[in-house]
Amino acid sequence: MASYILRRLLLIIPTLIGIMIVNFVLTQFVPGGPVEQAIAMVEGRGDAFEGIAGAREDSATPDFANDSVQSEYAGARGLPQDFIDQLEIDMGFARIVCADGYDGVPDLSDPACEKQKVGAFERFFDMMWRYMRLDFGESYFRSISVVDLVLEKMPVSITLGLWSTLIAYVISIPLGIRKAIRDGSRFDTWTSGLIIVAYAIPGFLFAIMLLVLFAGGSYWQIFPLRGLTSENFDQLSPIAKVLDYLWHITLPVAASTIASFATLTLLTKNSFLDEIRKQYVITAKAKGLKESRVLYGHVFRNAMLIVIAGFPSLFLGVFFGSSLIIETIFSLDGLGRLGFEAAVQRDYPIIFATLFFFGLVGLVVGILSDLMYVFVDPRIDFDKRAG
Questions:
Q1: What does pTM read for this prediction?
Q2: Is the model's pLDDT at 312 over the cut of 70?
Q3: For the chain, how many helices (H) and strands (E)?
Q4: Cβ contact 20:352 at 8 Å
């Protein structure tokens, strides 16, 4: 097993590099880069998308001949070129290069120095070298390190992912087992109908429905509309803090659990049905063993192999998959909203650092899933399978 884990760990490096290359290349073709975004913010336009085509709402027919500054950036006509050059340098798209023998401080105002573009290949290799040293840089627009920003937002996403996954397992496993035992009964039929309906409802639609019904919409105001804690959270007693926290996460967790709950229930049922119909179960019953002994002493371990081993992957799916929509609807400041805002602002340090982190976590979770298989059933030997 040790050699298998070592091989998987070594494969993480080329896989992660491949993920970063693909995303970095795709990003180069997306219009409206971080420099354009910074220019748009300075000019009060909010974002760069209004200027991608070279036009502004207040100037349908721009006169470039009268612009005081000629720039490659659409919409940057009112800003001095020195400001734009400094933006490029600060964001790593350019550098200051001075003449040989220059012993002063590099400055674009000095005739001996000039701006030199930094190519995409160089920027990529520099970024990966920094990442290997766990240096993820600083956000372009927030003046805070990416690591500190991710750590600040992570508790919200972990809350949603962990609680949703645990609740899904607590409900789905007993329900799936009962459905397998009573396969074809009325209980199995109507619960299957409810599960299919739950699976068919999009998470964001279910979240909105919960808000309308229970958060002061057209019906009851039982739960808070937004946030993870109340404004007076720091003044509450320890027990009151726990209750306040649970009160706030009820609706977001319910909304993010719905899809995983349906999938996991059917997976558990089908897994148990597959095991119940095997020959060893028939033999055990023929020997006079009680049904409960056969079910929980023999069937359970084999049937739960795929269910338990999938815990890391399910948690990762809930953690990253539904966090954006749920966090946006319930006004939770987590990794989902952080990634969305970074993509809109073209905040490359956050985009690439989170991609690197999520990719690394996803690859490690794949290894953990294999280890879960071995933990649940020690008979599995990946070394022999690989051989």
A1: 0.70
A2: no
A3: 16, 2
A4: yes
